[in-house]
Structures are given as structure tokens and as C-alpha cells.
Amino acid sequence: MSAFAHEPVLVEEVTALLQPAAGKVLLDGTAGGGGHAEALARRGARVVALDRDPAALRATAERLRPYRDCAVLRRDFGEAREAVASLGLPAIDGALLDLGVSSAQLDDPGRGFSFQADGPLDMRMGPEGETARELLARLSEEEIADILRELGEERFCRPIAREIKRAPRMETTRDLVAAVERAVPRRAFPAKIHVATRTFQAVRIAVNHELSSLDAFLRDAPALLRPRGRLAIISFHSLEDRRVKRRFAELRGRCTCPPRLPSCACGARASFRPLTGRAVRPGDPEIASNPRARSARLRAVEKLEAAA
Ligand SMILES: C[S@@+](CC[C@H](N)C(=O)[O-])C[C@H]1O[C@@H](n2cnc3c(N)ncnc32)[C@H](O)[C@@H]1O
Which CATH code, of 3.40.630.30, 1.10.150.170, 3.90.960.10, 3.40.50.300, is assigned to 126-207? Predict the structure, then answer.
């Protein structure tokens, strides 16, 4: 067993939607601990697994070793098109994203993702780029407040940004938690989540450019699929889910013209059909055994036979 512990969510549902079988190529853009990837490979699919985190890729490579023809690449899923091309594959039969961070990343204090444990203010999923500490040092108070509002939907974004910039040091997760606790009035501490949850989410999304990677994937992945190819995405917060929902609606031919136009000018045409009406949510037994599954939402679409 690899040290990269992560309990995959909605495995049965993902498997039923992506229909892994011998002869199919399926892309897993967020390999993590390799749980989904292995479930797909076990049913005969050739899995192409991507992740930005070298530790995740080591764990996935170990789990995929018994299965033939699988590939494990250190790539951003926003570069899925290049990854698939680099393997000489003309098209794929399906793709999965299971967004966010894994339990292994979250639970390692050295990665700096958690407000529960003290660690360096890093939060990078891979070894490249600016750490959270560097980002917060470079940005102005106003820019930090914008990030907290847009990516964390944090209503105390301004006072928190002020405390972050005023803090005598901002080097560890504890420093960031302390700044949030100083900025938010005690009586306004949320009842159900830690007061620093939204700030940590926002900073992590900014450090890893998570929404621009998702947008690039949503733009490019449909063209990678063969007709009847399927796309399944699990999101964990509304910023991601909204993007997925909007793009899937567009692929299903929803008109995106402003309502004031007398007739459609955007040329909306359906190239996909929905496979999930409402988002699929984990059942109570799964949430009981894996509390991190609580906020998962799975949506999937299938490319039409006639689509280019
Ligand atoms: C929730 S975990 C996936 C868990 C995986 N499905 C499993 O069964 O173990 C998300 C993974 O996606 C990776 N990740 C997040 N954003 C990424 C991106 N833009 N490109 C590649 N990997 C990414 C993270 O490093 C993390 O390992």
C-alpha cells in the first residue's frame, strides 16, 4: 500500500458513467492516489493518468503497474490536449476530473494546505510556481481581498486582507489562521466550518490557478473525445460546479445569447447529451465512511454520434 492515502469518492457512479472496457482509452486528469484510475484499469481500460503532484503520480504508477498500456504523466489537466497528443493518441473514449486536493496532500502539514496543523505556507500541488507565502507577500491588500471574495466567497475579505498585510510574519499556516481569527469578530465565526476555511480555499485556488486549469480543460476536452465519448467531473465547491454546469449546458446546445436579442445569434448546437440530470451526490453510507465525500457533485455528458 502506498503512503499516499486517499479514499476515492463516487467510484461506482464514475465507473458506471465512464463504462471502462478493453479497447477503451480513458483519461484521469486528477490521478491522486490512483483509486479511480485503478477502478477503470481493472475493468480493462487503458488509463492515461495525469497529476501535478509527483507524490500522487508515484502512488498511481504503483497501482497501475499490474495493468497493461497505462500511462502516468506529470501534467496539468489544463494541458490534457498536449498530454494525449504526446502519447500519439488520436482520441479518447472518456475523461474524468476529481477536482481539488487529495487527503494525502491535505493531511501532510509540510504541504501547507491545512488550517488544522502548523506547516509552511506553501499550498502548491506541484513543485513549480509561487508558494502561498510568496503570493501573499507579492499581492497588495486590495488584490488579496479580491481573491478572498472571488475564490472564497469570504464576506470578511477586507479585514482579513488587512490583517494578512499587517501581520508581523506570514510564513506558516498558523500565521494565516491567526490573521483570520484577528480579523473576524468572534460572534461572526461560522458554526459549521472553521473560520479560516474560506480563506484557505481561496488562497489555494489562487496559488494553483485552479479555475484557469479547469476552464482550459472544459474548453479542450470535448474535442479530444470520440463520438459517444464521455466526460465526468466531480467538483467540491460551487465555483467549480458552476463552471462545469455552464459548459455542459453549452455543449448540450443551450443558447448563450443575451436575453434582449430577438433571436439566437450564437449558433448554439447540441454536440453532447446529459448523462446526469441533477448532479449525482454520494449517499449517506459513503458520507459516513468518508466525510470528505460530503460536498462532492458529479456531472457527466456524452458526445453525440453525429458531433464532429
Ligand atoms: C481529489 S484528488 C484526486 C483523487 C483521485 N481521484 C483518487 O482516486 O485518488 C485531486 C488530485 O488532482 C490533482 N490536481 C489538482 N489540480 C490539478 C491540475 N490542474 N492538473 C493536474 N492535477 C491536478 C491534485 O494534485 C490531486 O492529486
Answer: 1.10.150.170
